[in-house]
Amino acid sequence: MNILYLHGLDSSLSIEKRAILEKYGAVYAPQIDYRKDTNSIKTILSNYNDMHINAILGSSMGGFVGYYIADALQRPALLFNPALAYRSVPQEIPNIANPNANLKHIVIGAKDKTIDPKTTLEFLSKSIGIDNYNINIRQDLEHRIPEEIFKEEVKEFFKKLCY
C-alpha cells in the first residue's frame, strides 16, 4: 500500500507518526512550501501522477490539499482539522469532478483555535451526499494532533479500509 501524507503549514511528518503509518504501507511525505506554491494541489498531482496511491492523509493545510487530492485520485482520505473553509495562505482549488463518493474520515478538534471547527462543519454540510463522510469530533483535541490520538485515528481509518 502507498500512503501519501500531506503535512500542515510550516510543518512536517514527525519520525514517530511516520513509524505509525509505516505499519500500513510505504509512506510518501513530500515537503511542501504552501506559501511559495499556491498551486500545491496541482503540483502534488503532477509529482505523484505515475504512482499508485492507495490512501491520502493530511493535517490542517495538508488536510485541505488532501481533500482535493482524494477527489482527483478517487482514494480514501484521513484528514485531521482540514483547513477547508479558511486558509491563512492562498491556494488554488482546481475544478475536480468527483463521480464516485470516496471515504473521507475527518477528525475535528472541538478545541481547535487555529481552524474553527464550526466553519469546517459548515463547509462539509454543503457537500453531504457527494462524499462518504465519517466525521469524528473529538472533544479532547486542539489543533495539534498528539501521537496517541494520531495512532487511534489511523488505526480506525485503516480498519474501515479492511487493511
Give a description of the structure.
There is one protein chain. The chain has helices at residues 15-22, 40-47, 61-73, 117-125, 147-160, and strands at residues 2-6, 26-28, 55-59, 77-80, 103-109, 132-138. By secondary structure, the chain is of the alpha/beta class. The longest helix has 14 residues, at 147-160. The chain is built from 5 helices and 6 strands. It starts with a strand and ends with a helix. A 6-stranded parallel beta sheet has the order 2-1-3-4-5-6, sandwiched between helices. It is globular and about 40 Å long.
Please summarize what this structure is:
By secondary structure, the protein is of the alpha/beta class.
The pLDDT mean sits at 93
Report how far apart the termini are: 9 Å
**What is the number of beta strands?**
6
Level-1 CATH class name: Alpha Beta
Please report the number of helical segments: 5
- Just name the CATH architecture: 3-Layer(aba) Sandwich
How are the strands of the biggest sheet laid out side by side? 2-1-3-4-5-6
Task: Write the SSE topology.
Blueprint: E1 2-6, H1 15-22, E2 26-28, H2 40-47, E3 55-59, H3 61-73, E4 77-80, E5 103-109, H4 117-125, E6 132-138, H5 147-160
Parallel strand pairs: 1-2, 1-3, 3-4, 4-5, 5-6
Helix pairs in contact: 1-5, 2-3
Structure keywords:
single chain; 163 residues; alpha/beta; Rossmann fold; six-stranded parallel beta sheet; 5 helices; 6 strands; 32% helix
